[in-house]
Amino acid sequence: MFLRVTDVDMEEWKDVVGYEGKYIVSNFGRVSSIDRQVATKGGSLRVARGKRLKAVKHKSGYMVIGLCDNGSMTQHTVHSVVAIAHIGPRPDGHEVCHKDNNRENNSVENLRWGTKLENAEDKQAHGTEVIGERNGRAVLTEKCVISIIEMANNGRAQCDLAKDFGVGRATINHILRGRSWNHVTGIAPCP
């Protein structure tokens, strides 16, 4: 089987905005330095060959790279570098959204500009929103929250529930008013 050029996605390279002439980024999410002349310790010039940069996974789950300018290295998320170069400047109040919710897939086809609310809605739709037990700081479990609702409905006082479950009274109040854990309780938030 022969492939026509139109059957194959072509990799397109553009300058990394702010690092023109030093780094390029492809529509596939790859970043490379480019050939350039650099000064040696002795003051002479030598050619530094461009090379592909290795992105590393940040604790946030996003892929990051370090870019140097005048001897100073700055860390950047790959998705931001790709989006700015291939989609265009970041609109005010927008952030990069991953269409498939995979933080490691930084292909331009997977990225778009969206508001913080749109990004949160994407995470909720994909089931990856960091709520409830998925929140690393959560003290309660879903089973505890269900027990709290049942015990409150049976007349148990909020201050007693707080003591029983090792949380503050405000936490119990937020659960009962739908301000937190409403994805478990189904309670609509009250003002």
Describe this structure as you would to a colleague.
- By secondary structure, the protein is of the alpha+beta class.
- The chain contains six helices and ten strands, in the order E-E-E-E-E-E-E-E-H-E-E-H-H-H-H-H.
- Strand 4 and strand 5 form a beta hairpin.
- It is elongated and about 80 Å long.
List the helices and strands and how they pair.
Layout lengths: L12 E3 L7 E4 L4 E3 L2 E4 L5 E4 L7 E2 L5 E7 L2 E6 H9 L7 E5 L12 E5 H11 L15 H12 L4 H8 L3 H8 L5 H4 L6
Antiparallel strand pairs: 1-2, 2-3, 4-5, 6-7, 7-8, 9-10
Helix pairs in contact: 4-5
Compact overview of the structure:
With 191 residues, the chain is an alpha+beta fold.
- Helix proportion range: 25-40%
Using DSSP, what is the number of strands?
10
What's the N-to-C terminus distance? Answer: 64 Å
Strand content: 15-25%
Task: Please give a handful of descriptors for the protein shown.
single chain, 191 residues, three-stranded antiparallel beta sheet, 6 helices, disordered N terminus
